[in-house]
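Hi everyone, sorry if this is the wrong subforum. Our group has a chain we'd like a structural model of before ordering constructs, and none of us has done structure prediction before. Sequence below.
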Amino acid sequence: MKYKIIYQKNNKLKKITLEASSEDELKSLQDYPENIISIKKVTIKYKKNISTVGQNNQKKVYELFSQLDLMLGANLSFHESIELLLKSKNEDKLNTILLEIKKALSSSTPLDKALKNYENYLGVTVLLFLKLGFENGNIKEAIHSLVEILHENIQSQEKFKEVMRYPLILIVSLAISIAMIFIYVLPNFDFLFILLKDEIPFSTQVLLGIKNIFLDYGFVIVLISILLFVVGSIIFQKNKRYFDRLILLNIPFLSKVIQDYYFYRLFLSISIIVKSKYQFQLAVLNSKDIVQNLYIQERMNFILSTIKNGSSVAEAFEKSSLFDTLTIKLLYTADHTNEYEQILSDITSLYKKRFQKSLKNFSSTIEPLMILIISLVVLWLILAIMLPIWNLGAVIN
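Answer:
Right subforum, don't worry. Here is the predicted structure as C-alpha cells:
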C-alpha cells in the first residue's frame, strides 16, 4: 500500500510517496521524513484499475502463483515466500496484492476477504483456493492445485483462440476486400453502369444497392448498430440465465465445445478440492461459481439441495438433467465404492478429452464452412463486376 506524506522541511511544504504494508512499517523506512503534517493512503487509483482489468491478466496471475508454488515447494513458509516476491520486480497491481496478503497475514485477516476488491483481477478461482488452503491448513497443496487449474484454463483458452483465429482472419479479410471494392473499384465502372441502364444484371443491382445504402445512410447505420449493441447488452444482462442456457445447449457446433469446457473446469475444481479432503457437497458448493454460467450454477444449486434432501450424489446429478449417461454411471460407481477421488479424476480426464475432441470437430467444421461462404461472396462480387462488361458487347451491337 502507498502513503502520501506531506511534511515540512526548510520552512517549505513537501510531498513524498512511500510504500509499506502499514503505518508502523512506514515509520521504520529510511526515507520516512521528519516534521510530518499529514499521512494519507493512496487507494483510489488502485480501486479504479481493479474494476476494469477483467480476464486479460490471467497469465500474470498464473506466473505470480507459479513462483509462489515453487517457493513453497522449496519448503519456504508462505510468509517468507511473499516477502521474496515483494523484493522481485512485479507490476504495481501485483505488488499491491502482495502487500495486501502480507498485511492480512500479520493481522490474521482471511485472505479471500482481504483480496475481495481484487476479485476481478485475480478471478474467483484464486480467492477460492486461498480460502480453502488456509481453512484446511494445507496452503501449499492449495497453491499447487490453483496453479494447475490456472495452467489448464490458459491452455484451454489458447486452444480455443487458435481455432477461432483463422475464421476471424478470413472474415476481416473479406470485410476489407468488400470495402476496397466499394471505395476504389465500383467508382471506375460508373460510366459503364450508366451506359447499360436497364441492362444491368441483378447481381450488380444488388451490389450497387448495398453501396448506395452505405454511402447515403452510413452514419445512421453506425448509430443504429451502437444502439442495438447497447440495447442488446442490457437485454443480455437482464436475461443472462436464459442466454447462458441457450449458449450451453442450443447453438449448433459451438454449444458442444462450451459445454465440455465448462464441465471440464467444474469437475477439475471439484476433483482437486475433494483430494484436499473436503466433503463432496462442499467441493460442489465452492466450485460452482468458477463456471461463469448462471444456468450451470442454478443446476448445481439444485444438485446440492437434492443431496441435502437425502438423494445420493449420482441421483442428484441425474435429476439435474445436465450430464450424460456415462458421467452418471461413473458417479453411481463412486457412490457404491466410495472412491470419489479416483472417479472424479476419471470424469475430469473424460471431459478434458471431450473438450479437445469437440474443439477439433468445431475447427474442422467451421473452417470449411467459412471458406465456402467466402467463396460464394467472392463469386457474387466477380459476377456483379464482370457481367456488365460481358453485356457491354451486346449493348454496343
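For your construct planning: The first helix runs from residue 23 to 27. The chain has three domains: 2-42, 56-122, 135-397.
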